[in-house]
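sry for the spam today, last one i promise. struct tokens for design, 714 residues
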């Protein structure tokens, strides 16, 4: 009966909104189109003409076109052997020599780019998807399907696209027991125990999703790396995943523990200058490449948060990285060395430490080393200024690392669209070589002429059926990939195309949801850490507010270290009268941040300590403004709830209800953030709340007593 109804619905061209969906299909849903868009797509996909003997990558592309068109139109198109009107022609000129006559401008597309063009071929009006490689064709197929799913015109296409950053990578913080550090979407998707024999079909879907947005690398394991990852057993498991990913143009990388030669190899030392240690790594690299010939390389967290590193032997980060680079070089492998270091015995203000450590090493790294820098100088906070390392190390290729998983942004249940955060980081102007020296240009290698370039996002993916713990978190995975491919895309454009593929193309849904997503990051900043505050989260799991915590072992782990609030005022003086962190930026940036007239609200308390009565540009006091910012954040979440409440008829029941419930959680927790923060700061400022502001629901002791021993991700 249900099948009959479904068939009837398909026949009538109705996409039934109430049909339950669980989010598994991500943005690759390919649900039946309504009559009008179906006619548009059908006219341009009347048949597929492809090379006779496709490679695995081209088979993946053709498989995706078949799957997509079968979903959108009801049946996959037939194969054609000669051009005919309305055909999709997909191939490289080498594979389909008849394309050569078209003189397509493929040279600038490199190994991964593609071109899509409406042309006349042998007298027939067709759409050509062309590239230099079959991976390029795969990207082109996904791009064409994106156009088809989002309701774009398909009859007059002329587009070409190539990635601006060479290595576009997801970093999984997945442990070998399947727990995920800072993961809020279930267990690791890598079922290590049943690998390498059992290759869960989900691995292929993971590869499809990544290829569809241009991601071409995956670090499989946590940066806090278990040495066991490099045992033969686990290398075989990684090799099985690499086999699945290969046709999709995705390379496998591994995080490595710097002490591995000691722990696994039984050597007395892991000193990078010890010849035995270097030989151990060379042999290990040879072993890995024998199993995974296209292995990407190593990601290394060294001498950071207790991890071993070259510093244990009084060697520099460059000496450590270069030793590993030498082991990988014969295989064209790359070392990605993380700049996320701060040290227990360093009294320097934390956001200054990475720069102090790495800037002197500029020019000292081997040619196959990339230094990976988090977007901000502290740690993936809701908002941070860009890291001063960007632009400060012209001799070293720098990668940008962002966090897609929302460790500090409400875990999986808060709706926070991160593309505006990523965009803010990419667009930040370092002024390293004058105006326009953006972080994007630095990491693309354009500013300083580097051939190596990379960007990494800490994955938010897990074993949950919806992959990311909520349907809206899928947008952050999607947006990361799209921006990694082209950092110039706008976060709004990305939101709109994601919504159209994930839910519906109906403008009555797309416009309000895009607006809701676009405002969501600022909302989180406001209810958690307004006006440039940072790191006010509870200890360890980082769930919820704890601005009062000041008794942790290391000063820079304490929220009070960052807020510096007392009876007189709040904020961290990082100008010349304080830690002088501003001095690490290029002079125009340093001047802007140091000057109260130009720093702006977003970074005010990051760079300045100010009295509670300080007059803001608005004329209101700092205290009143702070209180109202928290409230503004909570109100914004309430507005998101109202928006969503009016959209139920556009969304299937399961996904609608989940998002509605999560927004209710977010609203409750935003209120908690506001109330707890105000209760604490008011205990110091002793000032009355501004007129109309609601007092916190509980007293400060109540908030201080809350405990969450089972919070996820820790
Ligand atoms: C911090 C996380 C911690 C990570 C660390 C890192 O709290 O779990 O290990 O970053 O990036 O944000 O190494």
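last one done:
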């Amino acid at each position: 009966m249900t099948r009959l109804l479904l068939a009837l619905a398909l026949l009538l061209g109705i996409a039934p909104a109430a049909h339950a969906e669980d989010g598994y299909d991500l943005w690759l849903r390919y649900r039946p189109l309504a009559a009008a868009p179906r006619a548009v797509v059908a006219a341009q996909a009347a048949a597929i003409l492809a090379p006779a003997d496709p490679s695995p990558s081209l088979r993946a592309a053709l498989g995706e076109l078949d799957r997509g068109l079968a979903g959108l139109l009801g049946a996959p198109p037939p194969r054609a052997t000669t051009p005919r009107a309305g055909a999709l022609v997909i191939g490289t000129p080498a594979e389909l020599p008849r394309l050569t006559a078209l003189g397509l401008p493929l040279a600038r597309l490199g190994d991964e780019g593609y071109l899509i063009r409406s042309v006349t071929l042998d007298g027939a009006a067709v759409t050509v998807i062309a590239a230099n490689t079959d991976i390029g064709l795969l990207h082109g197929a996904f791009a064409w399907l994106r156009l088809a799913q989002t309701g774009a015109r398909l009859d007059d296409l002329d587009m070409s696209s190539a990635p601006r950053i060479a290595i576009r990578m997801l970093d999984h913080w997945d442990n070998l027991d399947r727990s995920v550090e800072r993961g809020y979407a279930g267990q690791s998707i890598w079922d290590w125990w049943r690998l390498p024999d059992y290759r869960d079909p989900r691995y292929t879907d993971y590869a499809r999703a990544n290829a569809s947005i241009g991601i071409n690398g995956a670090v499989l394991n946590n940066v806090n790396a278990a040495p066991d990852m490099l045992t033969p057993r686990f290398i075989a498991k990684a090799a099985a995943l690499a086999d699945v990913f290969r046709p999709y143009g995705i390379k496998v990388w591994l995080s490595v523990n710097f002490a591995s030669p000691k722990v696994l190899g039984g050597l007395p030392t892991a000193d990078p200058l010890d010849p035995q240690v270097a030989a151990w790594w060379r042999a290990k690299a040879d072993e890995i490449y024998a199993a995974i010939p296209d292995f990407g390389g190593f990601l290394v967290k060294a001498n950071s948060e207790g991890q071993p590193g070259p510093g244990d032997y009084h060697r520099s980060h460059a000496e450590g990285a270069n030793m590993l680079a030498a082991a990988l070089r014969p295989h064209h492998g790359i070392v990605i060395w993380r700049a996320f270091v701060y040290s227990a015995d360093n009294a320097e203000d934390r956001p200054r430490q990475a720069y102090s450590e790495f800037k002197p090493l500029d020019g000292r790294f081997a040619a196959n080393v990339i230094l990976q820098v988090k977007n901000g100088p502290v740690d993936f906070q809701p908002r941070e200024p860009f890291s001063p390392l960007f632009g400060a190390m012209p001799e070293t290729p720098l990668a940008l690392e962002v966090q897609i998983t929302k460790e500090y942004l409400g875990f999986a249940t808060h709706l926070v669209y991160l593309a505006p955060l990523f965009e803010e980081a990419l667009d930040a102007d370092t002024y390293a070589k004058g105006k326009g020296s953006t972080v994007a240009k630095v990491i693309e290698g354009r500013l300083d002429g580097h051939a190596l370039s990379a960007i990494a996002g800490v994955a938010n993916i897990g074993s949950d059926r919806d992959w990311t713990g909520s349907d809206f978190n899928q947008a952050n995975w999607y947006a990361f990939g799209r921006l990694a491919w082209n950092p110039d895309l706008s976060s709004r454009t990305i939101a709109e195309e994601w919504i159209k593929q994930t839910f519906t193309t109906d403008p009555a849904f797309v416009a309000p949801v895009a607006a809701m997503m676009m405002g969501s990051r600022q909302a989180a900043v406001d209810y958690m850490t307004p006006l440039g505050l940072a790191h006010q989260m509870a200890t360890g799991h980082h769930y919820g507010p704890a601005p009062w915590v000041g008794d942790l072992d290391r000063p820079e782990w304490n929220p009070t270290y960052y807020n510096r609030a007392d009876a007189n005022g709040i904020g961290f003086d990082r100008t010349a009268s304080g830690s002088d962190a501003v001095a690490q930026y290029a002079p125009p940036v340093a001047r802007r941040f140091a000057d109260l007239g130009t720093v702006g609200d977003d970074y005010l308390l990051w760079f300045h300590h100010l009295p509670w009565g300080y007059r803001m540009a608005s004329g209101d006091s700092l205290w009143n403004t702070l209180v109202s910012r928290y409230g503004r954040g909570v109100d914004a979440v309430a507005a998101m709830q109202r928006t969503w409440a009016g959209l139920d008829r556009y969304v299937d029941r399961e996904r609608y209800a989940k998002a509605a419930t999560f927004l209710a959680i977010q609203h409750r927790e935003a209120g908690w953030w506001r109330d707890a923060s105000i209760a604490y700061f008011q205990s110091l400022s002793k000032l009355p709340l501004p007129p109309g502001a609601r007092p916190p629901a509980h007293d400060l002791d109540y908030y201080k007593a809350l405990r969450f021993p089972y919070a996820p991700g820790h």
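Residues 181-182, 223-224, 301, 305, 340, 379-380, 407 surround beta-D-glucopyranuronic acid (CB under 6 Å). ok im logging off now
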